[in-house]
Specification:
By secondary structure, the protein is mainly β. Helices cover 0% and strands 45% of the residues.
Length: 171
């Protein structure tokens, strides 16, 4: 399934012209997410490769995210082009944040002239709606915010309106 992220209405027009996300499930309910960024990739601030490890505050720079409903709360995953990652559990909208005990995701990247790809494999089931999003930072410090859906107001990927994808049962 291929989905298109939309820029937040208040995000500046910049180097990125499109972000698509391909969602597959090589195992039942276990998603692989492939973020495909098109545009002037040379203008983006992409962190250098690092050892894949849990790292905080990745969202302050170019970062790809997935939010998974996991009643009674939800999970947030951050995937950096550096291969660093983060996973958090929340009790409700931005409340009760703590590190989620998960199997580390596998992250791979491919950088081209006008295309960037980040692939993240999650080793956990998706049991409810998902939100997919990206924060793109350019070398000049400009940031744009992309998601499947945006609630009114400031960008807020934690908002229930952003959990816009219901994965069908595997066929």
């Amino acid at each position: 399934m291929l989905l298109s992220l939309r820029p937040h209405p208040d995000s500046p027009a910049g180097a990125v012209t499109a972000i698509d996300v391909e969602v597959t499930r090589p195992a039942p309910r276990m998603p692989t997410l492939r973020y495909l960024v098109t545009g002037d990739i040379g203008a983006l601030a992409l962190p250098r490769g690092r050892p894949p490890e849990r790292t905080g505050e990745l969202w302050q720079h170019t970062c790809f995210e997935a939010f998974l409903a996991n009643p009674p709360g939800y999970l947030e995953f951050n995937f950096s082009p550096s291969a660093q990652w983060a996973a958090y559990r929340f009790d409700s909208h931005r409340a009760g944040m703590r590190e989620a005990a998960i199997t580390p995701p596998r992250i791979e990247t491919i950088i081209g002239f006008n295309r960037f790809e980040l692939r993240a494999e999650l080793a956990m089931p998706v049991l409810g709606p998902m939100g997919l999003s990206a924060i793109i930072e350019e070398k000049d410090g400009t940031r744009s915010y992309w998601a499947l859906a945006h609630p009114p107001g400031e960008p807020d990927f934690h908002h229930a309106a952003c959990f816009a994808l219901d994965l069908p049962e595997a066929g």
